[in-house]
């Protein structure tokens, strides 16, 4: 009987506990918790600058992820020992399945972004890297707004996964011992000399 009472008491508490757990997970997700855990936490690269064109959401996420490591992200190219060049994000989708009437039932979403790493003297430390992510996406034609929100969330998930992959690759980067001194020298270079450090990123 005691065991039954204990089980009954647990059953009554369980819904409230589950609701609290779900709320906690939502809050942690909103704070980018997945990027702030052990992933890249011990990453300690020389000061780096992220180079990109236009409004690139991948760059925003990457900057946030690196900000939670021991790596200093700077906003002036001349102050950086490393330059990360990031290409434009590519988002597209293709039809995966259709029903007997030819109506789309499922799409495959595709996300891709490329980046490369140079030192301040424009020497390549990591050639152009392309990170690709794919997700399947069911489409019923009903509740279009909800489906658009779901698609946007899937792209955001892929973007965060791509950032994690980029951080892993940066962890494996081999940094020359002379990098810091060369960075100090390049910081005194004339503006036209610094422009020669533009990174080529494969589209």
Total beta strands: 5
Named at the architecture level, the CATH assignment of the largest domain is 2-Layer Sandwich
Which band does the percent of strand residues land in?
Answer: 15-25%
**What ranges have pLDDT less than 50 throughout 5 or more consecutive residues?**
2-15, 17-38, 186-197
Number of separate helices: 6
Distance N to C terminus: 69 Å
Structure description:
The protein has 203 residues and is α+β, with helices and mostly antiparallel strands. It folds into two domains: 1-31; 40-197, Lipoprotein like domain (Double Stranded RNA Binding Domain, 2-Layer Sandwich), CATH 3.30.160. It has six helices and five strands; from the N terminus they run H-H-E-H-E-E-E-E-H-H-H. It has helices at 2-30, 33-36, 57-67, 144-171, 179-186, 191-194, and strands at residues 48-51, 82-86, 90-98, 104-119, 124-138. Strands 1, 2, 3, 4 and 5 form a five-stranded mixed β-sheet that branches. It is elongated, with a radius of gyration of 23 Å. The protein starts with a helix and ends in a 9-residue tail after the last helix.
Key words describing this protein structure:
disordered N terminus, 5 strands, elongated, 2 domains, 6 helices, 203 residues, 5-stranded mixed beta sheet, alpha+beta, Double Stranded RNA Binding Domain
